[in-house]
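@channel sequence for tomorrow's demo:
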Amino acid sequence: MASVPEAKPYGTPSAAPVAPSRVTVTTLAKMAAEGQRIAMLTAYDEAPLLIVNSERLNFVDNPAHLDLLLARIASMRSRREFFNLGQHA
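structure tokens (generated this afternoon):
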């Protein structure tokens, strides 16, 4: 009867640590072609995001709109915020 390997808890180090290898675009393409799952963390995960509804903004003909946007960017306090000029009067 074949023996079943003992399950290890998540995060348990393996017996022989593997030295990290450099991952290039070619490596990622090969992994994708082979159907391997790729876990990635991008710098965008921690960067603040301002979602702008530009439907009523005209940065070319109305410099005040650009000033509003720059002020809104400077006042950001959370990781994800929204900027919407709203309805015309």
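heads up for whoever presents: The chain has two helices and two strands.
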